[in-house]
Here is the input.
Amino acid sequence: MHVSKKRVFIAIHEPSYEAMYELALEAGKNKENIIILTEKVIKFKEECQEAGFRIFQFPQMIEIKKSSSVGKKKSKDNYLINEIKVIKNKIKEQLVKKPSYLILNILIEMVEVKRFSKRMKNFIDTESPNICYIYHDMLGGSFALFHKLLKEQNVKIVGINSAYQDPEIPAEQRAKSKYFNITNKAGLTVSYIRKNLPQQIYLYNNNEILFYRDYEIIAWYLCAFLPSYPWISGKNFCDVIFVEDEKIKERKIKQKLHVENVKVENHIKTDELYHIMQKSYKAKKEKNKNESITRLVLSASNLKKELNWDEKYYRDHLKDTRDIILESNKEIIYILHPKATFEDFKFLKNNKIKFSKGQTAKEIAETDIYISYASSTIYWGILAEKFCLNLWPIYSKDDSFGHLKSVIRVENLMQLKNKLQKLISSQDYRLNIKQKILHDKKTLLQKLDGKAKERILNV
Here is the structure.
Protein backbone atom coordinates (compact mmCIF):
# COMPACT_ATOMS: atom_id res chain seq x y z
CA MET A 1 0.00 0.00 0.00
CA HIS A 2 1.35 3.46 -0.92
CA VAL A 3 1.98 5.71 2.07
CA SER A 4 1.57 9.39 1.20
CA LYS A 5 4.45 11.67 2.12
CA LYS A 6 4.91 15.40 2.35
CA ARG A 7 7.94 16.12 0.20
CA VAL A 8 9.96 19.33 -0.04
CA PHE A 9 12.09 20.06 -3.13
CA ILE A 10 14.73 22.79 -2.91
CA ALA A 11 15.36 24.20 -6.39
CA ILE A 12 17.96 26.93 -5.96
CA HIS A 13 20.58 26.85 -8.73
CA GLU A 14 19.77 27.13 -12.42
CA PRO A 15 20.59 23.53 -13.42
CA SER A 16 18.36 22.19 -10.64
CA TYR A 17 15.12 23.99 -11.51
CA GLU A 18 13.82 21.79 -14.28
CA ALA A 19 15.09 18.52 -12.79
CA MET A 20 13.55 19.20 -9.39
CA TYR A 21 10.27 20.21 -11.02
CA GLU A 22 10.17 16.95 -12.98
CA LEU A 23 10.91 14.95 -9.83
CA ALA A 24 8.10 16.79 -8.05
CA LEU A 25 5.73 16.03 -10.94
CA GLU A 26 6.57 12.33 -10.63
CA ALA A 27 5.81 12.42 -6.90
CA GLY A 28 2.63 14.36 -7.63
CA LYS A 29 1.25 11.43 -9.62
CA ASN A 30 0.60 9.76 -6.25
CA LYS A 31 -1.43 12.75 -5.05
CA GLU A 32 1.25 13.58 -2.51
CA ASN A 33 1.66 16.90 -0.74
CA ILE A 34 4.40 18.73 -2.65
CA ILE A 35 6.19 21.92 -1.60
CA ILE A 36 8.78 23.72 -3.75
CA LEU A 37 11.33 26.04 -2.13
CA THR A 38 13.10 28.38 -4.53
CA GLU A 39 14.81 31.77 -4.63
CA LYS A 40 13.53 32.67 -8.11
CA VAL A 41 9.78 32.35 -7.73
CA ILE A 42 9.06 33.58 -11.25
CA LYS A 43 10.78 30.50 -12.70
CA PHE A 44 8.39 28.10 -11.06
CA LYS A 45 5.22 29.94 -10.10
CA GLU A 46 2.78 29.09 -12.90
CA GLU A 47 3.98 25.52 -13.52
CA CYS A 48 3.89 24.61 -9.82
CA GLN A 49 0.50 26.12 -9.16
CA GLU A 50 -0.98 24.42 -12.24
CA ALA A 51 0.38 21.10 -10.93
CA GLY A 52 -1.22 21.75 -7.53
CA PHE A 53 2.09 22.30 -5.73
CA ARG A 54 2.63 24.93 -3.07
CA ILE A 55 5.59 27.22 -3.58
CA PHE A 56 7.60 29.15 -0.99
CA GLN A 57 10.31 31.70 -1.53
CA PHE A 58 13.53 30.65 0.17
CA PRO A 59 14.93 31.67 2.64
CA GLN A 60 12.10 34.10 3.51
CA MET A 61 9.70 31.11 3.71
CA ILE A 62 6.90 33.23 2.22
CA GLU A 63 4.21 31.20 0.48
CA ILE A 64 3.35 32.50 -2.98
CA LYS A 65 -0.39 32.48 -3.50
CA LYS A 66 -2.39 32.54 -6.73
CA SER A 67 -4.16 35.78 -5.79
CA SER A 68 -2.98 38.63 -8.01
CA SER A 69 -3.16 41.14 -5.13
CA VAL A 70 -0.97 38.95 -2.96
CA GLY A 71 1.34 38.42 -5.90
CA LYS A 72 1.81 42.19 -6.28
CA LYS A 73 2.52 42.57 -2.58
CA LYS A 74 5.07 39.78 -2.67
CA SER A 75 6.67 41.26 -5.76
CA LYS A 76 7.22 44.52 -3.86
CA ASP A 77 8.55 42.57 -0.88
CA ASN A 78 10.87 40.60 -3.12
CA TYR A 79 12.12 43.77 -4.79
CA LEU A 80 12.98 45.31 -1.42
CA ILE A 81 14.64 42.08 -0.28
CA ASN A 82 16.75 41.97 -3.44
CA GLU A 83 17.75 45.61 -3.06
CA ILE A 84 18.77 45.02 0.56
CA LYS A 85 20.77 41.98 -0.55
CA VAL A 86 22.65 44.03 -3.16
CA ILE A 87 23.51 46.73 -0.63
CA LYS A 88 24.52 44.15 1.98
CA ASN A 89 26.84 42.40 -0.48
CA LYS A 90 28.50 45.70 -1.43
CA ILE A 91 29.12 46.47 2.23
CA LYS A 92 30.51 43.00 2.87
CA GLU A 93 32.83 43.21 -0.14
CA GLN A 94 34.27 46.45 1.22
CA LEU A 95 34.66 45.02 4.70
CA VAL A 96 36.56 42.02 3.35
CA LYS A 97 39.23 44.45 2.15
CA LYS A 98 39.58 45.92 5.66
CA PRO A 99 40.76 43.33 8.19
CA SER A 100 40.05 45.74 11.06
CA TYR A 101 36.33 45.42 10.27
CA LEU A 102 36.33 41.63 10.29
CA ILE A 103 34.29 41.34 13.49
CA LEU A 104 31.60 43.59 12.02
CA ASN A 105 31.54 41.41 8.90
CA ILE A 106 31.04 38.30 11.03
CA LEU A 107 28.20 39.97 12.92
CA ILE A 108 26.50 41.01 9.64
CA GLU A 109 26.65 37.41 8.42
CA MET A 110 25.26 36.06 11.71
CA VAL A 111 22.36 38.52 11.71
CA GLU A 112 21.68 37.94 7.99
CA VAL A 113 21.20 34.20 8.40
CA LYS A 114 19.76 33.97 11.90
CA ARG A 115 16.96 36.38 11.03
CA PHE A 116 15.40 33.58 8.99
CA SER A 117 15.72 31.00 11.78
CA LYS A 118 12.29 31.65 13.29
CA ARG A 119 10.58 31.52 9.89
CA MET A 120 12.31 28.24 9.01
CA LYS A 121 11.39 26.65 12.34
CA ASN A 122 7.80 27.77 11.90
CA PHE A 123 7.71 26.33 8.36
CA ILE A 124 9.02 22.94 9.54
CA ASP A 125 6.68 22.83 12.56
CA THR A 126 3.65 23.86 10.52
CA GLU A 127 4.25 21.78 7.38
CA SER A 128 5.86 18.72 9.05
CA PRO A 129 7.64 17.41 5.91
CA ASN A 130 8.83 13.79 5.78
CA ILE A 131 11.57 14.16 3.23
CA CYS A 132 13.56 16.93 1.55
CA TYR A 133 15.42 16.74 -1.79
CA ILE A 134 18.50 18.89 -2.42
CA TYR A 135 21.23 19.03 -5.08
CA HIS A 136 24.15 18.89 -2.66
CA ASP A 137 24.64 19.52 1.04
CA MET A 138 27.79 21.64 1.00
CA LEU A 139 25.90 24.94 0.77
CA GLY A 140 26.36 27.18 3.80
CA GLY A 141 24.43 30.11 5.19
CA SER A 142 20.64 29.87 5.18
CA PHE A 143 20.79 26.50 3.39
CA ALA A 144 22.93 24.93 6.09
CA LEU A 145 20.70 26.42 8.77
CA PHE A 146 17.58 24.97 7.13
CA HIS A 147 19.19 21.54 6.72
CA LYS A 148 20.25 21.54 10.38
CA LEU A 149 16.70 22.40 11.50
CA LEU A 150 15.32 19.61 9.29
CA LYS A 151 17.68 17.08 10.87
CA GLU A 152 16.61 18.17 14.36
CA GLN A 153 13.07 17.12 13.39
CA ASN A 154 14.27 13.81 11.85
CA VAL A 155 13.31 14.87 8.33
CA LYS A 156 15.13 12.71 5.79
CA ILE A 157 17.39 14.58 3.37
CA VAL A 158 18.17 13.12 -0.06
CA GLY A 159 20.94 14.53 -2.25
CA ILE A 160 20.30 13.93 -5.94
CA ASN A 161 23.04 13.86 -8.60
CA SER A 162 25.08 17.06 -8.66
CA ALA A 163 28.17 18.40 -10.40
CA TYR A 164 30.22 18.66 -7.21
CA GLN A 165 31.20 15.06 -6.44
CA ASP A 166 34.96 15.61 -6.56
CA PRO A 167 36.63 18.14 -4.19
CA GLU A 168 39.27 18.89 -6.83
CA ILE A 169 36.75 20.79 -8.96
CA PRO A 170 35.76 23.54 -6.49
CA ALA A 171 39.30 23.53 -5.04
CA GLU A 172 40.84 24.34 -8.43
CA GLN A 173 38.38 27.19 -8.97
CA ARG A 174 38.84 28.62 -5.46
CA ALA A 175 42.65 28.38 -5.62
CA LYS A 176 42.62 31.40 -7.95
CA SER A 177 40.71 33.59 -5.48
CA LYS A 178 42.23 35.70 -2.71
CA TYR A 179 39.10 35.13 -0.66
CA PHE A 180 39.46 31.34 -0.54
CA ASN A 181 43.18 30.68 -0.98
CA ILE A 182 44.69 31.27 2.49
CA THR A 183 48.19 29.98 1.70
CA ASN A 184 50.76 32.10 3.57
CA LYS A 185 47.97 34.20 5.08
CA ALA A 186 47.87 35.16 8.74
CA GLY A 187 45.25 36.84 10.88
CA LEU A 188 42.82 36.03 13.67
CA THR A 189 40.18 34.14 11.66
CA VAL A 190 42.63 32.19 9.49
CA SER A 191 44.67 31.15 12.54
CA TYR A 192 41.50 30.08 14.36
CA ILE A 193 40.34 28.00 11.40
CA ARG A 194 43.72 26.29 11.05
CA LYS A 195 43.77 25.38 14.74
CA ASN A 196 40.13 24.54 15.48
CA LEU A 197 38.41 23.82 12.14
CA PRO A 198 41.01 22.04 9.98
CA GLN A 199 38.34 20.12 8.02
CA GLN A 200 37.36 23.43 6.44
CA ILE A 201 40.74 23.51 4.67
CA TYR A 202 41.51 21.49 1.54
CA LEU A 203 45.11 21.02 0.44
CA TYR A 204 45.29 21.55 -3.31
CA ASN A 205 48.70 21.65 -5.03
CA ASN A 206 50.30 22.66 -1.69
CA ASN A 207 47.77 25.47 -1.30
CA GLU A 208 45.37 25.85 1.62
CA ILE A 209 41.87 26.39 0.20
CA LEU A 210 38.66 27.30 2.02
CA PHE A 211 35.26 26.29 0.67
CA TYR A 212 33.64 29.36 2.30
CA ARG A 213 35.13 32.74 3.18
CA ASP A 214 36.83 32.94 6.56
CA TYR A 215 34.27 35.29 8.15
CA GLU A 216 31.41 33.05 6.93
CA ILE A 217 33.04 30.00 8.53
CA ILE A 218 33.41 31.78 11.88
CA ALA A 219 29.86 33.21 11.78
CA TRP A 220 28.21 29.89 10.94
CA TYR A 221 30.37 28.05 13.46
CA LEU A 222 29.29 30.46 16.21
CA CYS A 223 25.66 29.96 15.14
CA ALA A 224 26.20 26.14 15.27
CA PHE A 225 25.23 25.22 11.70
CA LEU A 226 28.57 25.20 9.89
CA PRO A 227 28.77 22.17 7.52
CA SER A 228 31.49 19.94 8.99
CA TYR A 229 32.67 18.49 5.67
CA PRO A 230 32.24 21.23 3.06
CA TRP A 231 34.46 19.44 0.55
CA ILE A 232 32.52 16.18 0.64
CA SER A 233 29.05 16.21 -0.92
CA GLY A 234 26.68 13.96 0.99
CA LYS A 235 28.54 13.86 4.30
CA ASN A 236 27.05 16.97 5.93
CA PHE A 237 23.28 16.55 6.17
CA CYS A 238 22.25 13.88 3.64
CA ASP A 239 20.76 10.55 4.69
CA VAL A 240 21.08 9.29 1.12
CA ILE A 241 23.11 10.64 -1.79
CA PHE A 242 22.83 9.62 -5.43
CA VAL A 243 25.97 9.53 -7.60
CA GLU A 244 26.50 8.89 -11.30
CA ASP A 245 28.69 5.76 -11.31
CA GLU A 246 30.29 2.97 -9.28
CA LYS A 247 33.73 4.60 -9.15
CA ILE A 248 32.30 7.76 -7.58
CA LYS A 249 30.46 5.53 -5.11
CA GLU A 250 33.79 3.93 -4.17
CA ARG A 251 35.28 7.39 -3.58
CA LYS A 252 32.36 8.31 -1.33
CA ILE A 253 32.84 5.16 0.74
CA LYS A 254 36.56 5.98 1.09
CA GLN A 255 35.45 9.41 2.35
CA LYS A 256 33.69 7.48 5.14
CA LEU A 257 30.12 7.72 3.88
CA HIS A 258 28.15 4.61 4.81
CA VAL A 259 27.86 2.26 1.86
CA GLU A 260 24.08 1.92 2.27
CA ASN A 261 23.70 5.71 2.03
CA VAL A 262 25.32 6.00 -1.42
CA LYS A 263 23.28 4.95 -4.46
CA VAL A 264 24.29 4.85 -8.12
CA GLU A 265 21.58 6.43 -10.22
CA ASN A 266 21.17 8.25 -13.52
CA HIS A 267 20.32 11.94 -13.64
CA ILE A 268 16.60 12.72 -13.50
CA LYS A 269 16.66 14.09 -17.05
CA THR A 270 17.91 10.79 -18.48
CA ASP A 271 14.35 9.50 -18.17
CA GLU A 272 13.52 11.98 -20.91
CA LEU A 273 16.53 10.77 -22.90
CA TYR A 274 15.27 7.18 -22.63
CA HIS A 275 11.74 8.01 -23.78
CA ILE A 276 12.98 10.12 -26.71
CA MET A 277 15.21 7.29 -27.89
CA GLN A 278 12.49 4.69 -27.45
CA LYS A 279 9.67 6.63 -29.06
CA SER A 280 11.14 8.76 -31.81
CA TYR A 281 14.68 7.59 -32.47
CA LYS A 282 14.54 3.83 -32.09
CA ALA A 283 15.99 3.37 -35.55
CA LYS A 284 18.90 5.67 -34.68
CA LYS A 285 19.52 3.82 -31.43
CA GLU A 286 19.85 0.56 -33.34
CA LYS A 287 21.93 2.21 -36.03
CA ASN A 288 24.49 0.03 -37.79
CA LYS A 289 27.86 0.51 -36.09
CA ASN A 290 29.61 0.89 -39.44
CA GLU A 291 27.39 3.75 -40.59
CA SER A 292 29.16 7.08 -41.09
CA ILE A 293 29.12 10.07 -38.73
CA THR A 294 26.61 12.76 -39.72
CA ARG A 295 26.04 14.95 -36.67
CA LEU A 296 28.08 16.60 -33.88
CA VAL A 297 26.73 18.23 -30.73
CA LEU A 298 28.86 20.46 -28.51
CA SER A 299 27.90 21.48 -24.97
CA ALA A 300 28.65 25.21 -24.69
CA SER A 301 29.74 26.29 -21.20
CA ASN A 302 30.69 29.72 -19.95
CA LEU A 303 34.44 29.05 -19.71
CA LYS A 304 35.19 32.74 -19.27
CA LYS A 305 33.46 32.76 -15.89
CA GLU A 306 34.71 29.35 -14.77
CA LEU A 307 38.36 29.98 -15.69
CA ASN A 308 38.56 33.75 -15.14
CA TRP A 309 39.75 34.36 -18.69
CA ASP A 310 39.90 37.80 -20.23
CA GLU A 311 37.32 38.46 -22.93
CA LYS A 312 39.64 38.40 -25.96
CA TYR A 313 41.44 35.19 -25.02
CA TYR A 314 38.10 33.51 -24.26
CA ARG A 315 36.55 34.47 -27.59
CA ASP A 316 39.64 33.61 -29.64
CA HIS A 317 39.88 30.19 -28.03
CA LEU A 318 36.22 29.30 -28.62
CA LYS A 319 36.48 30.52 -32.20
CA ASP A 320 39.50 28.25 -32.76
CA THR A 321 37.54 25.33 -31.33
CA ARG A 322 34.57 26.17 -33.54
CA ASP A 323 36.74 26.33 -36.67
CA ILE A 324 38.19 22.87 -36.00
CA ILE A 325 34.72 21.41 -35.55
CA LEU A 326 33.52 23.12 -38.73
CA GLU A 327 36.25 21.29 -40.68
CA SER A 328 34.28 18.07 -40.10
CA ASN A 329 31.66 19.29 -42.64
CA LYS A 330 28.94 17.68 -40.53
CA GLU A 331 25.74 19.02 -39.02
CA ILE A 332 26.75 20.92 -35.87
CA ILE A 333 24.59 21.86 -32.88
CA TYR A 334 25.72 23.93 -29.87
CA ILE A 335 23.62 23.27 -26.78
CA LEU A 336 23.71 25.97 -24.13
CA HIS A 337 24.18 25.45 -20.39
CA PRO A 338 21.04 26.42 -18.38
CA LYS A 339 22.87 29.50 -17.06
CA ALA A 340 23.99 30.61 -20.52
CA THR A 341 22.09 32.73 -23.04
CA PHE A 342 22.18 32.90 -26.85
CA GLU A 343 23.65 36.38 -26.44
CA ASP A 344 26.67 34.86 -24.65
CA PHE A 345 27.65 32.94 -27.78
CA LYS A 346 26.56 35.23 -30.60
CA PHE A 347 30.25 35.83 -31.44
CA LEU A 348 30.39 32.18 -32.64
CA LYS A 349 27.56 32.70 -35.11
CA ASN A 350 28.01 30.80 -38.36
CA ASN A 351 25.47 29.68 -40.93
CA LYS A 352 26.67 26.08 -40.48
CA ILE A 353 26.00 26.05 -36.71
CA LYS A 354 22.66 25.79 -34.92
CA PHE A 355 22.16 26.79 -31.29
CA SER A 356 19.81 25.00 -28.93
CA LYS A 357 18.75 25.46 -25.32
CA GLY A 358 16.51 23.40 -23.06
CA GLN A 359 16.59 20.34 -25.33
CA THR A 360 19.78 18.63 -24.17
CA ALA A 361 18.27 15.14 -23.98
CA LYS A 362 16.81 15.45 -27.48
CA GLU A 363 20.04 16.75 -29.01
CA ILE A 364 22.16 14.01 -27.42
CA ALA A 365 19.67 11.34 -28.51
CA GLU A 366 19.94 12.52 -32.13
CA THR A 367 23.69 13.06 -32.41
CA ASP A 368 26.59 10.73 -33.27
CA ILE A 369 29.39 12.61 -31.47
CA TYR A 370 28.99 14.55 -28.22
CA ILE A 371 31.68 17.10 -27.29
CA SER A 372 31.71 18.56 -23.79
CA TYR A 373 33.75 20.49 -21.22
CA ALA A 374 33.57 17.99 -18.30
CA SER A 375 29.80 18.33 -18.13
CA SER A 376 27.88 15.68 -16.21
CA THR A 377 25.88 15.25 -19.41
CA ILE A 378 28.82 13.12 -20.62
CA TYR A 379 27.03 10.35 -18.74
CA TRP A 380 23.96 10.96 -20.88
CA GLY A 381 26.13 10.48 -23.94
CA ILE A 382 27.46 7.15 -22.66
CA LEU A 383 23.96 5.95 -21.77
CA ALA A 384 22.85 6.85 -25.30
CA GLU A 385 25.95 5.07 -26.69
CA LYS A 386 27.39 8.19 -28.33
CA PHE A 387 31.05 8.95 -28.98
CA CYS A 388 32.01 11.43 -26.22
CA LEU A 389 34.96 13.84 -26.27
CA ASN A 390 35.99 15.72 -23.13
CA LEU A 391 37.75 19.05 -23.81
CA TRP A 392 38.20 19.99 -20.15
CA PRO A 393 41.80 18.61 -19.91
CA ILE A 394 42.81 21.42 -22.29
CA TYR A 395 42.14 23.89 -19.47
CA SER A 396 42.36 21.96 -16.23
CA LYS A 397 44.30 19.21 -14.47
CA ASP A 398 41.01 17.88 -13.12
CA ASP A 399 40.44 14.35 -14.38
CA SER A 400 36.93 13.66 -13.08
CA PHE A 401 36.06 11.48 -16.08
CA GLY A 402 39.42 9.72 -16.35
CA HIS A 403 37.97 6.42 -15.09
CA LEU A 404 35.50 6.35 -17.99
CA LYS A 405 37.58 4.60 -20.65
CA SER A 406 35.04 5.32 -23.37
CA VAL A 407 35.39 9.11 -22.99
CA ILE A 408 37.98 10.45 -25.45
CA ARG A 409 40.30 12.80 -23.58
CA VAL A 410 41.44 15.91 -25.49
CA GLU A 411 44.42 17.87 -24.13
CA ASN A 412 44.93 20.46 -26.89
CA LEU A 413 43.23 21.72 -30.03
CA MET A 414 45.47 19.69 -32.34
CA GLN A 415 44.33 16.54 -30.54
CA LEU A 416 40.74 17.65 -31.01
CA LYS A 417 41.33 17.96 -34.76
CA ASN A 418 43.10 14.60 -35.05
CA LYS A 419 40.68 12.62 -32.88
CA LEU A 420 37.64 14.07 -34.62
CA GLN A 421 39.08 13.14 -37.99
CA LYS A 422 39.85 9.63 -36.76
CA LEU A 423 36.33 9.16 -35.40
CA ILE A 424 34.81 10.30 -38.66
CA SER A 425 37.10 8.35 -41.00
CA SER A 426 37.94 5.11 -39.17
CA GLN A 427 35.35 2.38 -38.69
CA ASP A 428 37.81 0.32 -36.68
CA TYR A 429 38.41 3.19 -34.26
CA ARG A 430 34.67 3.71 -33.82
CA LEU A 431 34.13 0.00 -33.14
CA ASN A 432 36.91 0.05 -30.55
CA ILE A 433 35.40 3.05 -28.75
CA LYS A 434 31.93 1.53 -29.02
CA GLN A 435 33.12 -1.54 -27.09
CA LYS A 436 34.46 0.74 -24.35
CA ILE A 437 31.14 2.61 -24.25
CA LEU A 438 29.24 -0.65 -23.75
CA HIS A 439 31.69 -1.73 -21.04
CA ASP A 440 31.40 1.57 -19.09
CA LYS A 441 27.64 1.51 -19.48
CA LYS A 442 27.34 -2.07 -18.19
CA THR A 443 29.88 -1.98 -15.32
CA LEU A 444 29.70 1.58 -13.96
CA LEU A 445 26.31 3.14 -14.68
CA GLN A 446 22.73 2.43 -13.71
CA LYS A 447 20.58 0.94 -16.46
CA LEU A 448 18.90 3.46 -18.76
CA ASP A 449 15.25 2.44 -18.41
CA GLY A 450 13.28 5.63 -17.81
CA LYS A 451 12.83 4.85 -14.09
CA ALA A 452 15.45 7.08 -12.43
CA LYS A 453 12.85 9.43 -10.91
CA GLU A 454 10.83 6.49 -9.64
CA ARG A 455 13.84 4.92 -7.90
CA ILE A 456 14.91 8.23 -6.35
CA LEU A 457 11.43 8.81 -4.91
CA ASN A 458 11.18 5.25 -3.59
CA VAL A 459 14.50 5.28 -1.74
Remarks:
- The chain is about 45% helix and 15% strand.
